[in-house]
Amino acid sequence: MRTGRITQCSIGIIVVLTAASLSFNKANKVTSDRSVSENAFLQVYKVFMSPRCMNCHPAGDVPLQGDDNHLHPQGVKRGADGKGVYALKCANCHQPQNTPGLDMPPGVPDWHLPPADMRMVFQGKTAHELALQIKDPKQNGGKSPQDLIEHMKTDLVKWAWEPGDGRNKPPMSYNEFYNQFKLWIDKGAVVPN
Amino acid sequence: MITLTVNDQSYTVDVEPTMPLLWVLRDVLHLTGTKYGCGMAQCGACTVHLNGEAVRSCVTTVARAVNQKVITIEGLSSNNTHPLQRAWAEEDVPQCGYCQSGQIMSAAVLLRENPNPTDQDIDDAMSGNICRCGTYQRIRKAIHRAASLQKEGGVQ
Amino acid sequence: MSSTTYSRRRFLQTGGTLTGGLLVSFFIPASAKRLGEKAASADVLFVPNAYLSITPDNNIKILLSHVEMGQGVWTTLPMLMAEELDCDWDKISVEHAPPGEPYKHTAYGIQITGGSTSTWSEFDRYRNAGATARALLVQAAAQKLNVPVSAIKTEKGFVIAGDKRISYGELAEAASKLPAPTNVTLKDKKDWQYLGKPMRRLDAKAKTNGAAKFGLDVYFPDMLIAVVAHSPVFGGTVKTFDASAAKAVKGVRDVVKIPTGVAVIADHFWAAKKGRDALKIDWDPGAGKSFDTVSQFQEYKKLAGTKGTPAGKAGAVDEAMPKTTKKIQAEYIFPYLAHATMEPMNCTVKVTGNTCEIWTGTQMPGLDQAAAAKILGFKPEQVTLHTQFLGGGFGRRATPGSDFVSEAVQVAKASGKPIKLVWSREDDMRGGYYRPAFLHQVTIGLGNDGLPAAWQHRIVGQSIVAGTPFEGMIKDGIDATSVEGVNDSPYLESIPNYSIELHSPKTPVSVLWWRSVGHTHTAFVMETLIDELATAAGKDPVAYRRSILKSKRHLGVLELAAEKAGWNNPLPAGQFRGIAVHESFGSFVAQVAEISIDKGQLKVHRVVCAVDCGTAINPEGVRAQMESGIIFGLTAVLYGEITLENGQVKQRNFHDYKILRMNEAPLIEVHILESGEKMGGCGEPGTPPIAPAIANAIFAATGKRVRQLPLKPADLKQA
């Protein structure tokens, strides 16, 4: 199983750190990777906390809207699969593409929230909490670090940079975001303090 | 040319693929039971079933409906026999009536997926449909009544 | 109540229909009385075939002088008819009447649905029509069977004499040849079989299967759709425009300039709207471009500091005020409100030679017919108007200037094409005709007894009727719709010194009656102030009102609402209640609102409503209208606000002009107090009390008074 990698990796870091005196050079590289990873997460954290990402990772079961993160009107609910309930399923309004015009429903194929058993809340989370949550297979739907990188390639994630008329984009380009996210994983998926 | 199936009848229409389904239904096929209220999926007056889901036809391009099954209020039942239509009349729900096609189409999905809806379920299903006459309380009662009628075998 | 004989109304002539049925024709009383009110003298006018027809197969068609916009006249007026006609309820069909003399409002003299008047104003006329038809049918049966009239009964569309049973349909032709009776006796209230009983709506079926035709649903071959680009600023005009891109849109057939803008005509709405979006228009915004609602209220505030036109006065406020020991001063602000009917404005027009046909949902078909005729250089009778179901009215479809009908006629005239004018939601939201913005400034001096000894009340807001054909309604400088609810407040009886003054500034923004009109703001001011006085006097709000109100009918509903709400019983922890009582349109309504505030969010749990409309002709309809009025009023409390900047309306659609939804709707209980007093209306009176009842409940929760609507987050925080 690939899901164990982050944990193994973390244990590895701890082992290395406690054994730092054994190899100064090695320890130096680890410290450097650690801070690169941590910094990378702090960069992507800004994106995660931007309305385009956070609004579909709400603390409650109602998606958010707008740069003020207000509750989605219409009483829209997450539903077990994250795709809404009954007559208020996401795809009833959210099309496979953005509907043109100000305040029109944005869209990509399979518009949805995280499912109820993997809520992946961004709203209200510190960088520390969010990083812990994202890398925890128990909370991230059993995703391995590589799976997490793959998730960042989905249309739904990329939508944040093509958010439709009148919506602000996250605070860095998609490529920057992707590279930083990958860097975070590659350099050890360090959880910032 | 675009081919679509509405209320089990096939139509071929000469419209742009990006034209909202609503205007194809209303202005091309003249199925006017589906209403225009806002054009931005805020009010639910234009709700129709696309493969059984309560889509807002004002923001649904006709391209999305190609070769799919569209049901409008006109096709919900023959002769007002759907439990919701019966319940709506029995609870005296409609006032101006303009939003009610959309209300019923939304409620139909609720009842199909949850034959015994609670008040909370009704809120969760129906809050996307605005009624300016404020018939919400009667809609709520009518859905409960329709659930009973459905159990008694009133399903089409 | 005793039965009444209407000898004044003579029914001179009847006539056969083409199919051999009966059409009833008779004199139309120019004014009706309310139940419990003395009959007014009436000029009469003969018009044939006005209200009902009976076909040989015993079907009854009833024509409505009032239009169905949700309030239920499609059912209530037939009830009045059926009660006296004794027909089979299941055999009734209903249609809107065309514009015409017989359908003019019995109290207003023009054809209008408004002012919550339909039921009481038709109470005599429609019962009379039914009774007259029945008398003729009975007479025809008597002749046919050779029995005296006294030997004949009627039942559910049949005449019965001994073991003989003849349908109305079979008798219709013979009846149509008889002279109409000169007077008919109406049933005693105790004998009513339909009136006073809850009857289900006759339009429910058509409104649940897509069959009901609203104005927007009109279609005939060759009809095109028109969408108009309106000036973004009120009063703005087109300087120049370039339609080349618009005309290049597939499906666009024509682009024409009309007085209110530029119309794009196309095969369907989508093409017309895309064409409109592609128009390049250079607007001359005119003087309205500098208007904004923030400075408007600053101006209004200044005006309120100056003396206005007197609208009511007793004693000497100026002398009494300084002598009072305690004062309450309050300033209230109410925004513009859009009607936001679910069906946006629309109108279909077809001009052929020297005739014009119009299809629309309108509250004033006669005025619209005249307006269309004027534009076309026709006589009104050259214009046929087919009233469709109205997808909501609330006053918006009663514009004295016939705005959307005129615009449609202009498009048809300019293009020479049959068109359906369709306003988008954005056009509708920004197209004007709002409940006027108002500011109230009130100073109350309390006497030593804690009761108001002096009350100075200044109201600032646009007149609805000024500059319209209804301007004549302004008396002594006062548009009654600006002050109703204050200058006729029942509390004034108990206030020795008061002065009510009005300022009616003009603005570029077009304004209109909006469900319950002036009462939308006056009830709020009066009922929150009375609550404030109760608090100042250290009294319970209900007990205080009881001590100061003398009006029996106000007290009746106040007590009923309080009792049904369990006013004296504690609520669950965290819940609070408020009460308000207000009369409007002849009906008395009290409401108790139960609320809680959780994390800054207002939740309205339950509203208990008591209504006294005299006699509830259709109690189910009365309940429905109270429910409807409460939701309408609650929407305004929570969300309703139209604001302008640089002369432009900022709101566009339901995302920024929100309407209450199912998950916000409280439980509503309606209790009808059947007083048998003078009849009032029900379409509007449910709206005024809810806002003050909510505000008073918020005070109970927070200790803070709400001075401005809609509610702001700060209103829901503790004092």
Automatic annotation (TrEMBL), chain A:
Which InterPro entries does this chain map to? Multihaem_cyt_sf
Q: Which SUPFAM superfamilies match?
A: Multiheme cytochromes
Q: Which domain of life is it from?
A: Bacteria
Q: What is this protein called?
A: Cytochrome c domain-containing protein
User: What is the protein's species of origin?
Assistant: Niastella soli
UniProtKB/TrEMBL annotation, chain B:
The answer to keyword Repressor applying to this record is no
Q: Which SUPFAM superfamilies match?
A: 2Fe-2S ferredoxin-like, CO dehydrogenase ISP C-domain like
Coiled-coil regions listed in the entry: none
Q: Name one Pfam family in it.
A: Fer2
Keyword Iron-sulfur assigned to the entry: answer is: yes
- Segments forming domain 2Fe-2S ferredoxin-type: 1-76
Q: Which InterPro entries match?
A: 2Fe-2S-bd, 2Fe-2S-bd_dom_sf, 2Fe-2S_ferredoxin-like_sf, 2Fe-2S_ferredoxin-type, 2Fe2S_fd_BS, Beta-grasp_dom_sf, Diverse_Oxidoreductases
**Transmembrane stretches, start-end:** none
User: Which UniProt keywords are present, listed alphabetically?
Assistant: 2Fe-2S, Iron, Iron-sulfur, Metal-binding, Oxidoreductase
At the top level of its lineage, which domain of life is listed? Bacteria
Q: Which PANTHER family match?
A: BLR6218 PROTEIN, OXIDOREDUCTASE WITH IRON-SULFUR SUBUNIT
Name recorded for this polypeptide: (2Fe-2S)-binding protein
UniProtKB/TrEMBL annotation, chain C:
Name of one Pfam family that matches: MoCoBD_1
What taxonomic ancestry is recorded? Answer: Bacteria, Pseudomonadati, Bacteroidota, Chitinophagia, Chitinophagales
Can you tell me where the transmembrane regions are? Answer: none
> What is the protein named?
Xanthine dehydrogenase family protein molybdopterin-binding subunit
Instruction: Show the InterPro entries listed in the entry.
Output: Ald_Oxase/Xan_DH_a/b, AldOxase/xan_DH_MoCoBD1, AldOxase/xan_DH_MoCoBD2, AldOxase/xan_DH_Mopterin-bd_sf, N-heterocyclic_Hydroxylase, OxRdtase_Mopterin-bd_su_IorB, TAT_signal
**UniProt xrefs under SMART domains:** Ald_Xan_dh_C
Residues forming the Aldehyde oxidase/xanthine dehydrogenase a/b hammerhead domain are: 209-287
Superkingdom of this protein's organism: Bacteria
